[in-house]
Amino acid sequence: MNCLDDIKWDAAGLVPVIAQEHSSGDVLMFAWMNREALKRTIELGEAVYWSRSRGKLWHKGEESGHIQKVHELRMDCDNDVLLMRITQQGHEPGIACHTGRHSCFYQRLENGVWTATEPVLKDPQTIYSK
C-alpha cells in the first residue's frame, strides 16, 4: 500500500490517530497506529490500533464489542496525524471509552479541577467481565 509511505511515522513507527464520530463530529478517542494497524484498518473497514501498553495490535471492540466502522480516513497537512471518521457500533452503540462513556474526552477543567461531564452509559465491569 503506497499510501502508507506518505505518512511521517515517528521514531517508534507510530502515527497518532483521532477517532471522530461521523454523525455528530464528536471526538471520541485518541490512539496510535503502526503500519500494520493502518493496513488492517483499511482492509477491514474497522479501526485497528497499536496498543502501546499491550505491545500488540488492538482491533477496537475485540473485548468490549464496541467496534468502530471507518467511513473516512484523513491526514493532516504535515502528514503526521490521522483523523478517522467512524461510527461506533456494538452491543451498546455509542460507547467508545473503556470507562463506559460515549467519549474518552469526558473530563472538563472547571475552576482548576477536572470534572466528569459525561455520564457512564454502562458499567465497564459488565462490559469487560467474561
UniProtKB/TrEMBL annotation:
Membrane as a keyword of this entry, yes or no, is no
- Quote the cofactor binding remark: Binds 1 zinc ion per subunit. Binds 1 Mg(2+) ion per subunit.
Q: Its catalytic activity?
A: 1-(5-phospho-beta-D-ribosyl)-5'-AMP + H2O = 1-(5-phospho-beta-D-ribosyl)-5-[(5-phospho-beta-D-ribosylamino)methylideneamino]imidazole-4-carboxamide
Gene3D superfamilies membership = Phosphoribosyl-AMP cyclohydrolase
The record's function comment reads: Catalyzes the hydrolysis of the adenine ring of phosphoribosyl-AMP.
Q: Which family does it belong to?
A: Belongs to the PRA-CH family.
Q: List the protein's name.
A: Phosphoribosyl-AMP cyclohydrolase
Q: Which organism is it from?
A: Roseateles koreensis
Gene this protein is translated from: hisI
